[in-house]
Write a structure and sequence with these properties.
The chain is an alpha+beta fold and 224 residues long. Helix content is 54%, strand content 14%. It has a single domain (7-219), classed as Roll (Nuclear Transport Factor 2, Chain: A).
Length: 224
Amino acid sequence: MFNALTSLTRRGLCLTLMLALSGLVAAPLVHANEETADAFIKRVSTETLDLVKADKSLRNGDPSKIMQLVDGKLMPHVNFRRMTALATGPAWRKATPEQQKRLQDEFKTLLVRTYSGALSQVSDQTVVVKPLRPGQDDKNLVVNTEVRGKGDPIQLDYRLEKTPGEGAGWLIYDLNVMGIWLIENYRTQFTKEVSAGGIDGLINSLAERNKANAGGAAATARKS
């Protein structure tokens, strides 16, 4: 149903997702409006690497611990609605609010369960944030980074938007791992599912995939 990414890309994408998890850990939100996009990514990335390195259950891919971390630390700093809408394409606008919520929930579960196992790869990595390209729009700004450690550096790029008004800050809505943008990768797959079975067909396919992933994780846990 869904095309598998390469092992290296899966590890990189997992690390990318986890690097966005510590937005509530450090700088107070009162300073969010003053923080530049590259400073935001650097802070979040460094602190999250430290968080994962210090927590064995995260490195072991504990699904409940990871989901708790995602809900508590990631979601406030990701425009997941926009991410899901862009991945779904035109069918999103035709979906009911209930279908949109179900799709967001299943998509989030898919991402977490698919890539959680790669957390065991986190060891001595550091993040290098590259200089921002000038003239970028705050609604579609890209921050380029590299994760360096053992082996070749992993290219991780973030697409962000700045929210307006009081308490404004940066929200991540797309991720690029070694040249593969998350939204583009899933849009191709989601379009096929929607063409075959509509928006409900896509939701059901995601739910089936999540059940299969959960079953595999449970079997692995019983053997360990």
